[in-house]
Amino acid sequence: MINAMLRREWLLLWRRPQDMLQPITLLLLLILVFPMALDLTQFSLPSLGWPVLLNAVLLSLLLGMEQLFAEDQRTGYLDQVRMSYGLYAYVLIKLVCHWLRVWLPLVVVLPLVIFFYQMPLSALPVLLLALSLASAAVVVFAAFAAALTLGLARAGMLMALLVLPLLVPVLVFAAATGQAVLMVEPWQGAILWLAAITCLAWSLLPWAISSVLELANH
Amino acid sequence: MILQAVNLALRFDDWQLWRGLSFTIAQAELVHLRAANGRGKTSLLRGLMGLNHWLEGDVRWAVDMQAEEDFAAKVLFVGHKTPLASELSVLENLQLLQGLRGQVSSQQQLAATLQDIGLQGFADMPAKWLSAGQSRRLVLSQCDLPSLRFWCFDEPFVALDKMYVEWLVAKIQAFQLSGGAVLFTSHQEIPGLAARELYLD
């Protein structure tokens, strides 16, 4: 049963390329447009790249996220899952596949951001690790909000209101990691905090999401 | 006995639909659930499947159907909705529906199933291109899984053409002969089905 659920989400990951391309297109646009509004005699481009990227990740990953469980509820697939294996495995599989959907394009985009904003290439490994942890946290928090707002019309705005405050610690520690790497200072402390938040969210929130989905379908 | 419902009551918001509903479904029994629109037929079926909570009352299943994995393998629920993934092909959807019940079929078996529901040649087509009747046939094709003992169908004949109504009637009759029980709703009289009628009122 797990195999069937895993195969379904894996196939859908590749059969819906628009879901993968839309957020990353918005992200690229935000990153490219942002410096055009700045007076670059007063700001240094390399110090802006990482904060801009993080904010763009926060906003673009929320795009369309309210649809994460909507179709499965509409088609009655959630009911079938509840009658067979239960929702926890489904939620975990869904989250991992959705994280891959947003993470794979980010891996491609990060070197471009480093190039556009003239950041040192040596920062790439740590930034990639921080970006992976931050995006994983964003996905699980946003999925929680998507489950809470399931069935509401125009849930996107409400979702952003619910999620963005919860993501402030993620943003702060991810930003601190990048800042420390770029200043060639010790960055391990900040990234450990970031990893702790992400691990905590991934260990607790899938339970909460499956309970909320259970309630939403009664 | 397949299931025994004891003293069920259902409320929708502040509106009491019914209470004190008790019935038993035995092996090889065919039960036609009847009621006017909005009287809670779908809610009753969903409740039996464990998808809704009762206000009061209890549903007792046969001893060998109580465990979670037994329930998935032995009980088939087909509701109004068709749980297909629109971007996946007909064949993939069929495999996934069966996989969700813990069943893996060989390629020959899958081809035979598609032949049976008249979708041979559509195996690689995305499910979103299927008509309503074709989607329903694809979902109903799960009824051939050998482990099943109880079918719970919410308006199974909707969208089916005449030929496939007869096809489904034949399936139900064969299932009944093998000892399976069926609970279904329908507003139409279905010729050929001698069912006990259960009224919700």
Mean pLDDT of chain B: 90
Assembly level: heterodimer
- Major sheet of chain A, described briefly? none
Number of discrete helical segments of chain A: 10
Our count of domains of chain A comes out at 1
Helical amount of chain B: 25-40%
The percent of residues in helical segments of chain A reads over 70%
Q: What sequence of helices (H) and strands (E) makes up the elements of chain B?
A: EEEHEHEHHHEHEE
Return the CATH topology of chain B. Rossmann fold
Taken as a percent bin, the fraction of beta residues of chain B is 15-25%
Describe the protein in words:
The complex is a heterodimer of chains A (218) and B (201). Chain A is mainly α. Chain A has one domain (2-216). Chain A is built from ten helices and no strands. Chain A has helices at residues 2-15, 17-33, 45-62, 70-74, 77-83, 87-116, 124-148, 155-166, 168-182, 188-216. In chain A, helix 1 packs parallel to helix 6 (87-116), helix 2 packs parallel to helix 6 (87-116) and helix 7 runs parallel beside helix 10 (188-216). In chain A, 40% of the residues are buried. Chain B is an alpha/beta fold and 201 residues long. Chain B has one domain: 3-Layer(aba) Sandwich (Rossmann fold). Helix content of chain B is 30%, strand content 25%. Chain B is built from six helices and eight strands; from the N terminus they run βββαβαβαααβαββ. In chain B, the strands form two sheets. A five-stranded parallel beta sheet of chain B has the order 5-6-7-3-8, with helices on both faces. In chain B, helix 6 (162-177) links the parallel strand 6 (150-154) and strand 7. Chain B is globular. The mean pLDDT of chain B is 90. The chains are: A mainly alpha (218), B alpha/beta (201). The A-B interface holds A 1, 3-5, 7-8, 11-12, 15-16, 71, 74-77, 79-86, 217-218 and B 46, 49-53, 68, 71-72, 75, 77, 79-88, 92, 95-102.
Nutshell version of this structure?
The complex is a heterodimer of chains A (218) and B (201). With 218 residues, chain A is an all-alpha fold. Chain A contains 10 helices and no strands.
